[in-house]
Description:
Elements: E1 10-11, E2 21-29, E3 33-36, E4 38-39, E5 53-57, E6 60-73, E7 76-81, E8 94-99, H1 101-125, E9 129-134, E10 138-143, H2 149-164, E11 169-175, H3 181-186, E12 187-188, E13 198-204, E14 208-211, E15 226-231, E16 235-240, H4 241-261, H5 269-304, E17 307-309, E18 312-319, H6 324-331, E19 338-344, E20 348-353, H7 360-370, E21 375-377, E22 381-385, H8 389-404
Parallel strand pairs: 1-4, 12-14, 18-19
Antiparallel strand pairs: 2-3, 2-8, 3-7, 5-6, 5-8, 6-7, 9-10, 10-16, 11-13, 13-14, 15-16, 17-18, 19-20, 20-22, 21-22
The structure holds zinc ion.
Amino acid sequence: MSNSTNNHTELLFWNNQNLLEFEAIIQEIKDKGIILDKTAFYPESGGQLSDTGQLVLEKDKKSKLEVEFVEKQNGRVIHYISGKIPSNFKKGLKVIGKIDQERRSNLMRAHTSQHVLSAVIEDIFKIKTIKAVIDEKLITVYLERKITEEELTKALILANNHLLSGKKVNSKFFKKSEISENVKVNLRGELSKVEQAKVRIVSIETLDSSLCGGTHCQNTQEIGIIFLDDFKGDIVSYTFGDTALERMISLSLGVIGASKLLASKPNEVVNRIPKVITDLKELKDINSQLNRILLKQLMINVKENPLIIGEIKIFREDFHFAEKKFVLQELGSLDENQLAIFVVKGPIIVVVSSLKQLTANEIVKVFCEKTTNKGGGSPTVAQASTNNKTEDLEIIMEIIKKKMK
Ligand SMILES: [Zn+2]
């Protein structure tokens, strides 16, 4: 079956999807891509990502190009290369194409697993898959409407049973007119939308027949198990094989760890968490109430015991547990010739001044120049960041003493 007469690229993976090495002739060199007369590289389509691999010049095997992405345009397959195409790759020359085996194998298994899950969901709930995104490790299936968690559980268990039972996967071309009525009835995909006279039907023994041009593994046992990654009602994401097992184990370990921390059984963790969150919120409320009481008491002490330099009274304290707005509230307005320097939650240093000769923003400005800290504010209230609050409070005191001389 050669289509090369009408300039179409012959797709070798349709007749032999296990073909990982092939010879072909360069038909055209495009800006960053090469078009061959035939290819075993799968071009991205139907949700399945493209193959990657190499193109090697047959007469000079040291000349290799990495194929990063493959796509089909108007029946011609373009192999996109990293970087510029060297001048020794010319039209008419023979190349050897090598497909990245691991990636292809993963994509075939991923794609086949999607057939199984979509077939199961359509079979038991009559819900069609409208789109699928098939990556090497993660598959996302978009359903035409939402399913419940119970329905999803049922579908995943059934799909896994089918996978593990080892069902044969076949693909074959049929003339549209040759397809029997009982095949048509259960066929996934819309036959009426296919323009070509021939269609490719991929079938999974006793489970599924669907119209598909992708690559698939030969037996569902090659896939391993599938395991949920994310669920949003009509969007199901899952992993398969070893990735699925790794995810199961890591989730189990996480839940077991959490159950120990919560002193409950693993299956009770989910029910315990809302209570833990409620308890935490209550504790936070109590804590902030206690903080307000503590702040009030400390502020009384601070105001009763100011530091006196000349005519100036200075209030200073570390209130790192309290919000700035509460500290300023408790401080109230300053009388004449008063300064306040507090550490508040952040930690941030807040300077409050009623002095005309030494404003709050002036103190902060000098402080920021002396340190690498950032800050600013108004003549009455200014603030600066602090990395070492004890040291920074000392620096500010020094600035004030110097200025007051
Ligand atoms: Zn398929």
